[in-house]
Amino acid sequence: MNRHLVLGTILSLLAIPVLVHAASDSQTLTINAVVANRAKLTIAPLTINFPDADPDVVNPIPASENAVTVSSRVRTGAASVSTLTCLANGDLLDGANSIPVANVTWTSTGGGYVNGTMNNSVSQAAGSWTGSGLNSGTFSYFLANSWAYNIGNYTQTVLYTLTAP
Amino acid sequence: MANPLRTTSRRGPSPSPRGAGGGLSPVVRRTLVGPLAAALVLLASGAWAGPARLTLSGGVTFPDADPDAVPVIGPQVITLGVQVLGPVGVPWTLTFIANSDLQSGGNVIPISNVSWTVTPNPPFRDGALSTATPIVLATGVSHSRLLATFNFYMPNSWNYVPGNYTATATFTLAAP
């Protein structure tokens, strides 16, 4: 076989990988996602009522709205602890008459939520969680009944605060 | 005396006294025979389908959003141009694979959370990203010039850990 023909064939074979390689291409797509710290608290309903009741028959008095649903949604560091606290703005008041807000207690359901007693000077723990997540639960409120209460329509507000560091 | 006359006639009307290719030395002519033959074989077999070209425009950035208000983030839109030239009828395949999950430090959002819809469909196909298996986005035969518009989505969740997440994914166009 002619050596020049052999040389040409070799050159052509060397060219094949180049040609085949040219029949492919690739592109890289970069995908970003931004996730920010968040805290979102939902309580429903936002008003509860303790009806009048005979202290000998009903004690404590459950709120008519029990159980109140609560949802604490947080985005925070995997090891960060978020907290839910409550602080009453005063005692239950009706004009000059008052019922100590500490007479109001609650029980809870749901992971991370805790039972407690209202206070108007020190924030009370109502729940805590580690890391991000949606934490659902309930609060059921009770008022200690007493023959010593003056008659009236008492009211007060309580501030709940969800904090995610 | 007749033989020289017949020889002249076979060389045809070439202006060269040595006929077509007569300007090349026998060594060069013989060297070219191989490559030319190989090229003809390649073209006849359709083995060379190039050039294949992908053109990507845009990027994907999912912004932060309230999961209750925006349960699915998106669409984030990109366009991808696909061009396969060469012999008609050569098959091509476009695949897509993620190189990792979405990562921010040690925190991870599964890349399988990222999905897309695409037009035109067909030949392009909707799907979700994977790090394990290249997903066949489209197939076809040359010649092909297509422009695909992708809408990327990611489900939102309260479970995500805050951070700036990133990942890459690779489109590969092959016409074997």
Derived from helix and strand composition plus strand pairing, the structural class of chain B reads alpha+beta
By DSSP, the count of extended strands of chain A is 12
Using only CA atoms, what is the Rg of chain A? 34 Å
Shape of chain B: elongated
Largest interface: A-B, 43 and 66 residues
In sequence order, what are the helices and strands of chain A, one letter per element?
Answer: HEEEEEEEEEEEE
> What structural category characterises the helix and strand content of chain A?
mainly beta
Question: What's this, in brief?
Answer:
The complex is a heterodimer of chains A (165) and B (176). Chain A is mainly beta and 165 residues long.
Commentary on this structure:
The complex is a heterodimer of chains A (165) and B (176). With 165 residues, chain A is mostly beta strands. Chain A has one domain (38-163): Immunoglobulin-like (Sandwich), CATH 2.60.40. Chain A has one helix at 3-21; strands at 24-35, 38-44, 61-62, 68-75, 81-88, 92-94, 97-99, 104-109, 116-117, 124-130, 133-143, 158-163. In chain A, the strands form three sheets. In chain A, strands 2, 3, 4, 8, 9 and 11 form a six-stranded antiparallel sheet that branches. Helix content of chain B is 16%, strand content 42%. Chain B has 176 residues and is an alpha+beta fold. In chain B, a hairpin with a 2-residue loop joins strand 5 (102-104) and strand 6 (107-109). In chain B, 28% of the residues are buried. Chain B is elongated and about 50 Å long. A five-stranded antiparallel sheet of chain B has the order 1-3-10-7-8, with no helix packed on it. In chain B, strands 9-4-11 form a three-stranded antiparallel sheet, with no helix packed on it. In chain B, strands 5-6 form a two-stranded antiparallel ribbon. Chain B starts with a helix and ends with a strand. Chain B folds into two domains: 21-45; 52-174, Immunoglobulin-like (Sandwich), CATH 2.60.40. The model of chain B is unreliable at 1-24 and 31-49 (pLDDT under 50). Strand 1 (24-35) of chain A pairs antiparallel with strand 11 of chain B.
